[in-house]
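Fig. S4 source data, part A: sequence.
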Amino acid sequence: MSEVAHASHDDHHDDHGHHHKETFITKYIFSQDHKMISKQYLITGLIMGFIGIAMSLLFRMQLAWPGESFGIFKAVLGKWAPDGVMDADIYLALVTIHGTLMVFFVLTQGLSGTFSNLLIPLQIGARDMASGFMNMISYWMFFVSSVIMIISLFVEAGPAAAGWTIYPPLSALPMAQSGSGMGMTLWLVSMAIFIASSLLGSLNYIVTVINLRTKGMSMTRLPLTIWAFFVTAIIGVVSFPVLLSAALLLIMDRSFGTSFFLSDIFIQGEVLHYQGGSPVLYEHLFWFLGHPEVYIVLLPALGITSEVMSTNARKPIFGYRAMVASILAIAFLSTIVWGHHMFVSGMNPFLGSVFTFTTLLIAIPSAVKAFNYITTLWKGNLQLNPAMLFSIGLVSTFITGGLTGIILGDSTLDINVHDTYFVVAHFHLVMGISALYGMFAGIYHWFPKMFQGRMMNKNLGYVHFWVTAVCAYGVFFPMHFVGMAGVPRRYYENTAFPMFDELTNVQVLMTVFAIIAGLVQLIFVYNFISSIFYGKKGPVNPWGSNTLEWTTPQEHIHGNWPGEIPHVYRWAYDYSKTYENGEYIIAGQDFVPQNVPLQENEEELNH
């Protein structure tokens, strides 16, 4: 069957080199070329990311200096900052939109959409995605959802304000507060379109990996990047429809008088007519997507790290099959742990113990990945370029953030720190910072492939990494202790609690680190934009990498390879491979690309 699939795949794509001449609109705007679509995802995701980071700096300033007047508040927030003092309503709105943008628009589509689109066809040896048209539709739905989310910032009553989890009743009753009105409706519409975009993209990725692999590219020869993108897409198809159902039911509660999530509500002494619903039902629906979402964000970053780390350690990845098995185990376990977000919602203690068990179980495949990364680095010939540094940084934050997850995954321990800054510190390290590091590693590593062989400035990359790494820990490491002291998350200010006064200096410290970290991202932006136009041209394969994307010409062509698609004869990690006499397989070259046939007397590695 696979031979038939490969044959039809070649026939289907043979005419790609003979397309009619493309116009500016078909090449750069409504493009169906996966390489251009990946750039569209990346640039849209980066723009949303900088909006999200700017919001975080605003509310961190409020936490560090509560009640202070700032000119920037007046300039940016307008009526929501009278005399330069931030209004309490807009604080929660900033937290809400910051979380939404970073989790969904940056780390889901900005990361997965960019690198799944760029690498899946190139690394499996395909001319393009299974459906270029569906790929284009997926991006433009993402773009429309991004625009709607940004428009929601400018409605008169203010953007959505119920935390990024949008729990009822704040999200279900338009009259509950100013942030429950039109801004919330736009949030729900935006997310519904976003989920449709994500599902279209995920189906495309799955079909492409299954059907369009080149000859010789068996599943056990796939780079770990492709395994990560493939499994991430499967998780998305399983879990995103559940969030869509929650959003649609919430829209019906808001606009059509139903009460799926509402019951016995009083507003200013008046009894509302809602009966029979349950806000806990919404929590179940949200977190059934919400926890797999952690791995939808994290697995692509881990896949990128596998590729970057093996390439720059000049060593085969350690435990390839164990890495694949851990990706599959994480995918399965991630769908049966959602209840650990709900330990304080009145959950039956026995059910809590079940979720504790499954949550602690997921630490095993995560630890397999961490140990395998460390073993890959061990005694490697390390090339410490910016991509490699960000990959090592990811392993660091993945471990430190993961350790605190063991505390939060235990129902007995979680109750003590639930809804404190301890939780915020944990998920920012294990998911947010780790995924951002993976995204930066991917950008530095594949920048030459995305932008016709141009290289990013390495020295600016070093500054970007070291300042970001120090500041990330500077923000989130002290936050654990603030959380253990009992400081609740999402509070506009803690001046009503005298026992927290002595922690104000820690808030100032974290905010200073956050501002420095935000500013240093401007160095990255400068490096990124200037390198697109003026970056030094590098060789076709600048990192000495084995995967197929480096066999394509630097100048992008629709169809990737000008002639026949290369066949694959080996796995993706033949680095520093030698004969018994110690000589490299290819004389003077410590890597063997996947499209090089096995040499005489060479044995294929049993990975």
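Fig. S4 source data, part B ends here. Residues 1-19 have pLDDT under 50 and may be disordered.
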